[in-house]
Amino acid sequence: MKATELKKSLSNLISINQPSIVWGGVGIGKSEIIHEVGESLGFVIKDVRVALLDPVDLRGVPSVDNGTTKWNPPVFLPKEDDPKTLLFLDELPHGTPSVQNALFQLIKDRQLGEYTLPESTVIVSAGNRVQDKAGANRVNTALGDRFIHLTLDPCVDEWRKWALSSGKILPEIINYLKYRPENLFVFDPKATVNTTPRSWEYASRILSNKPEKDIEQELLAGAIGEGISAEFVGYLRTVRKLPSIDKILNDPKSVDIDDDPALLYAICGIVARRMNKQNIGKFVDFLKTLPEEFAVLTMSDAVTINPSLKKTKDFIEFDVEYQHLTI
Fold first, then answer.
1. Half-sphere exposure in the Cβ direction for 215 (13 Å, CA)
2. Cα angle 314-316-318, degrees, rounded to a multiple of 5
3. How far apart are CA 263 and CA 274, in angstroms?
4. What is the pLDDT of residues 261-292, one digit of tens each?
5. What are the backbone dihedrals phi and psi of residue 192, each rounded to the nearest 5 degrees, phi first?
C-alpha cells in the first residue's frame, strides 16, 4: 500500500489497540510513518530496537524483596502512570528466535512475567522482509498471528509530495526523480550500496554542503550507488546551465528552454520553489511559454510548497485557463 493508505490503516488499528506490523523494503520510511502517525494521535513513542535485545533485556534483572525473587522490568516498558504510549518494536524480524518467543507473551497476553502492559499502551512493529536479504529472520508463526500485517510500497508521486512539503530534499533531486521515477528505489540484495528514499535524503544532505566538483560523484556514489550517481551527476551538470531565476523574472516571455524533458522538469522545479505572491504573475507569463503539461506540473508543485498561492488572482486565472488539464 501507499504511504497515505498506510497512515490511515495505522490510525484505524491504533485507535482500537490492535497490534500491527509494517513490512517493506530497506529505507522506504516505515519507521518514520509509524512515528508520524503515533505522534499525530497524541501518543508518546517508545522506540525499541528488537535486534539489540536479549531475552533477559525484556524480563529485566531479578532482585530479592522480603526473601522473594521479583523481576524489575526494563525502563523502556511503559509504566501504569505513563501517558498513553505507542510501544514501537522496530526491526522485529531481526530479533533472535528466543527474543521473539519472549515478545510473544507481551503481545499475546500483554504481560511479561509479573509485568503487565498498561491499557493505554498500543504495540506497533516494523521490519524488512526475508527476501530483502537485510539480515531479517523469519517471524515465528505464532507471533506473526498476533499482528495485523501491512505492507508499504514505495510510490514516487507520494514521495515527491512529501519531499516538496518537508523541505528536506533539494529541488534538483525532486526534479530528477520526476524525470526518472524508476530510480527512487532500486534495490539489489547483493549490492553494497542501494538506491532508496532514505539514501536520496543522504544525497540531498551531501549536495546541500556544496562539495567540490571533483569529489561530488564519489560522495553521491556512496549514497545512491555508482550507476545512478553517474547519471544523476550528468543531469546536474546539464541543469546547472539553465537560465537564472532573475533572467526569467526580468523578461519571462523571452526565455528559451530546450524541449528536453530533463531540462523542462528541472526548470519547472526551480520555478515552483521560487514562486510567491509577489512574483507569481511573471512566473505565470513564463509558464505560458512551456508545454501545457509542464506548466500545470509547475503550478501544482508551487501550491504544494506554498498553498497561499491558491488565493491569488494570477493562480485563479491560470487554473481557469488550464482547467482542461487539471479536471
1. 7
2. 65
3. 17
4. 888 888 888 888 889 999 999 899 999 888 89
5. -75, -40
Instruction: Give the C-alpha distances (Å, rounded to integers) separating 204 from 49, 110, 134, 232.
Output: 27, 42, 24, 12
Q: Which of 109, 116, 103, 125 is CA-nearest to residue 14?
A: 125
CA atoms within a 13 Å half-sphere pointing along the CA-CB vector of 244: 3
Residues 59 and 103: their CA atoms lie apart, in Å, by 10
User: Residue written as cell 528466543?
Assistant: 98
Check if the beta carbon of residue 43 is closer than 8 Å to that of residue 84.
Answer: yes
CA atoms within 13 A on the CB side of 226: 3
> What is each CA distance from 93 to 18, 57, 140, 152, 187, in whole angstroms?
19, 17, 9, 16, 19
Pairing outcome for strands 148-151 and 44-49: unpaired
pTM, rounded to two decimals: 0.77
177: phi then psi, degrees, rounded to nearest 5: -80, -15
| DSSP assigned state of 92 | G
Q: How many CB atoms lie within 10 A of CB 192?
A: 8
